[in-house]
Amino acid sequence: MVNDTIADMLTRIRNANLVHHQIVQVQSTKMTKRISKVLKEQGFIENFEEIQKEAKSYLLLSLKYKGKKRQPVINALKRISKPGLRVYSNKKELPRVLGGLGIAIISTSSGVMTDEEARRNGLGGEVLCYIW
């Protein structure tokens, strides 16, 4: 049993990118669905769909690659807020990842969104991860 489904999701994506897999299967929770939606909106993954298998449900993420050498679109994923040490940020101190080239995924009171959307809406929240 996995306690930190977000870290598990990021690790599975990172490992699948290293070996150039087309799809990756992650455990389906409300939070992983919301993170997958943000990744799709930002162009880091092609698509995602939910699959029911016996009593469990999974998300299948289609990873995105570019060029003839199939370089992954996602260069790195970093988990920031962990179950043992939560990291929060107010609207004035929202992080910028690589000077705006990457995104920070923030869990706010209005849902899961990127740092740019949170800044635009004047919201702070829990900093889940960085992706670039």
Automatic annotation (TrEMBL):
Protein purpose: One of the primary rRNA binding proteins, it binds directly to 16S rRNA central domain where it helps coordinate assembly of the platform of the 30S subunit.
Gene3D superfamilies: 3.30.1370.30, 3.30.1490.10
A GO-annotated cellular component: ribosome
Pfam families with a match to the protein in the record: Ribosomal_S8
One MF annotation (Gene Ontology) recorded for this entry: rRNA binding
Record-stated family: Belongs to the universal ribosomal protein uS8 family.
Keyword Transferase: no
Source species of the chain: Glaucocystis incrassata
Gene name of the record: rps8
Name used for this protein in its record: Ribosomal protein S8
Cross-referenced InterPro entries: Ribosomal_uS8 (IPR000630), Ribosomal_uS8_CS (IPR047863), Ribosomal_uS8_sf (IPR035987)
Keyword presence, Metal-binding: no
PROSITE patterns according to UniProt: RIBOSOMAL_S8 (PS00053)
Assigned keywords, A-Z: Plastid, Ribonucleoprotein, Ribosomal protein, RNA-binding, rRNA-binding
GO process annotations (BP): translation
